[in-house]
């Protein structure tokens, strides 16, 4: 199973719009992907699901992670890195079996001009540690407000071209 993770819990995030765009593009290529937004982590996850504790709500998320072989992480830039809530997800999941020897692709987005280059690099380091193999083509989409149209689609020709290339490589990965 493929799971796209929209890695912020911010409501109405651009991250979720980009995640839905990737899901649609995969579908057009005949590939079904599950989509999980970190808005749907248990509200009290810090108290209920870390360091050996497990709520029923998080167990469902853990089951979904267990059944996933390939992840696509859409990561907004928050204070020069990826969101802390993504690290909470990784730290709350069972180690090492949740991500070990699985595969992932990474996409950084930002309202500023760097497209979360640093956050994608920081998270790549985490992925190496947990033995999650990363697709070499990592994408960065800066100025996200100018990239999405009213329907939530990426529309700038270069961005469409490079996201399409990444999706095709991700399918073969
Ligand atoms: C807590 C927080 C920190 C942010 N830090 C940065 C930043 O360091 N660089 C940047 O370009 N944009 C930053 N932004 C703006 C996001 O890149 C912007 O909101 C963009 O739409 C992607 O995030 P979203 O998925 O929350 O919409 C920040 C936004 C938030 C909520």
Automatic annotation (TrEMBL):
Residues 2-136 form the NADPH-dependent FMN reductase-like domain. PANTHER family: CHROMATE REDUCTASE, NAD(P)H-DEPENDENT FMN REDUCTASE LOT6. This is NAD(P)H-dependent FMN reductase. Pfam families: FMN_red. One of its GO terms (cellular component) is cytosol. Signal peptide: none annotated. GO terms for molecular function: FMN binding; oxidoreductase activity. Gene3D superfamilies: 3.40.50.360.
